[in-house]
Amino acid sequence: MIYLDNNATTKPDPRVVEAMLPSLREAYGNAASRSHPFGWAAEEAVETARGRVAALIGADPREIVWTSGATESDNLALKGVAEAYADRGDHLVTAATEHKAVLDAARHLERQGKRVTILPVDKFGVVDLDALRDSLTERTVLVSVMLANNEVGTLAPLAEISRLCREHGILFHTDATQGVGKVPVDVEALGVDLMSFTAHKMYGPKGVGALYVRRRNPRVRLTAQMDGGGHERGMRSGTLNVPGIVGFGAAAELCRQEMARDAAHTCRLRDRLHEGIQSGLDGVALNGHPTERLPNTLNLRFEDVEADALLLGMPQVALSSGSACTSASVEPSHVLRALGLTDAQARSSLRFSLGRFTTEEEIDRVAERVVHEAARLRRLAPERVLTA
Ligand SMILES: *Cc1c(COP(=O)(O)O)cnc(C)c1O
Question: 181: CA distance to ligand 1 center in Å?
Fold first, then answer.
């Protein structure tokens, strides 16, 4: 099998797995236990990881809140801010191409009486800055725009968005799940107030994530969405997932050291894949931004070819048509629709997402398989060319 679905999840780096083993075996203490060495060791491991994760994004360790993943971080950011700032306003702004964790959290708040603006994007998936400017009101408390899109990889102009938010005294959250570990992310340079990300998209384990919460200029308030023992300075109760957090810390440290190499590697192979497919096949178009894009992501549209049929013809290649998070449903991707694609075009699109462990040999085999299968499918149904 060839794994090209790294935007859905990554293989845990063997060095991450190794780092986690002690806390699964003998160092199994509860990080909140203050009365014995088991607890102290666990707390120390958690704080080491907190420092590593904070260092990767240019944050203070005290600004990192552990969660169960980016879905929880997104929910905590949107709902936590909406509740904490209810006295100041009732309006949130986000974009059409956001992950469902953001869009559905916003929809939930809308049902509770908040007002939500969903911004359009251009054909590359870049949010409309004029529409954003026009949407801001006295009652706006939060803007949430993702750093990099999970389906097409388009990067957002976050520094410009955060400047607009600052000018209006509005908090800015970004779902940076696909960016952290792949491209340099610095919370100060980007001017973000809250930021979601997760370990399993950067060679760490599943079930552990983080929410960055700014502590000064401004100090962000957040209403906890999980009540309990008051862990994580009251923002997120629950016994910490120590092995997961240790793995997250190890993954963050590896990304900090190897990100430039990983990015150059995936970018070179991604462009090789693109060229290999395009040189062997007509009617292939790129979805997403040609340059302002994640180094590992290639989303292609194959004229007159059903992406799912293409996948069936390449059982040895693991990749996604549409978003992995919604591929259980038959609906065409909301992201591709927001970029202006028709249902048929969305259904003709495949996402190739490469990673640290992808090899050149794999890429050459996939390019060959895609060209062969797409050409075969077109020969089988030539009449579709006429009706498309
Ligand atoms: C994967 C992903 C999520 C969800 O992360 P989990 O840790 O699986 O909950 C949220 N946002 C984006 C952009 C993602 O790619």
Answer: 14
